[in-house]
Amino acid sequence: MRVLVIHSHPIVDSFSGALRDAASEGAQAAGHDVRVLDLGAMNFDPVMSADELRGYKAIMSATSDDLTMHIDAVKWADVLVFVYPTWWSTLPAQLKGWLERVMRPGVAFEFDENNKVRPGLRQVRKIVGITTYGSKWPYVKLMKDSGRRTLLRALKLNTSWRTRSKWLAFYGIDGASEARRAQFLGQVRKSMETL
Amino acid sequence: MNVLVLFAHPLADSYGRAIHDQVMSSLHVDGHEVRSHNLWQENFDPVLSAVEKREHFAAPETKTANDSLLAAHVADLRWCEAIVFVYPSWWSAPPAIMKGWFDRVLMQGVAWTFPEGATRLHAGLTHVRRLVAVTTYGSSRWVNALEGEPGKATIRRGLRVLCNVRCRSTWIADYGVDRASRESCSHFLAKLPRRLHRALR
After folding, report:
1. Measured between CA atoms, how close is A193 to chain B, in angstroms?
2. Domain total of chain B
3. A112 to chain B, closest Cα gap in Å
4. Which of A22, A112, A161, B48 is 20 to 30 Å from the Cα of B163, by its Cα?
5. pLDDT at A175
């Protein structure tokens, strides 16, 4: 399968970076084609400009060159893998902005004649979320786990009814031991080997 | 009341902008002290930098020293008793530029502290007694219910626990804007002052 890994973290050699590598190496080991979009490393600008929003519904017309590569990667992929640290119970701004700018009409969805949103990601077979939480599980659930809802509900509504999803979460990373971190890296690698 | 208005919309001729102007005028009519930030206009950078991430537990002054805009945001956050968010919901949540306000401005020593031996964050915004969100959704109310309203949870839960224990939060939302008529939009605008007045009482 064609696996697209989207990663957002400001520090290159962070634990999140190690998760990105474990995910892509795991998928490669299983013989999948892997592409990685490291938003932090490529300095992706998450802010939609006024012109871009004006041309939002005119499909693809207002996309700048830097977006074309991202859009092509999304259209190429069967599996979308999101790797990020959870901040304020949801995606970092940079990854949220990636959704806004790349997952636009003509890519992730289309407006039908009644201006209703119709799914555009039917080719995607699986959405995988790999994230770390500072808090423990009960607190994350009390805060309603917004990031998971954004990816596995809001984004997933734009895929096919057959699209599967998987959530790999590391709760309570603040103060977690090296052993637990290593164990989670192993878990991520293994799940990506058995997509 | 000291009210901080955070506004996010890139277009000056948008419905979002009309809502913002209505919010500002009704706050003035009610006699509140208002400070406001138009995140797009002031070119707020929403991306947490590597330095800010590394200095996560540093004193706020070390992060704001070379960034006067960030310093102004921190000062206004410390000053306010109510925060009013005005934004269009994209992917059921605030636009990235506003999510970046959370990532960068809600910093250690301002919005929260993590004392030695604590098991979770301690609230730092105990002076904030009201949270209000005025937002628009392209899709209908039931689609957003299905999606689980992630943006709503971030403000009413995630941010709310950092505020005063008696802080009240109010959700003022216009759903289904993609297919809304001009009348329903002006109806929403007309009702806004009264709803804001009640929220900030």
Report:
1. 29
2. 1
3. 11
4. B48
5. 82
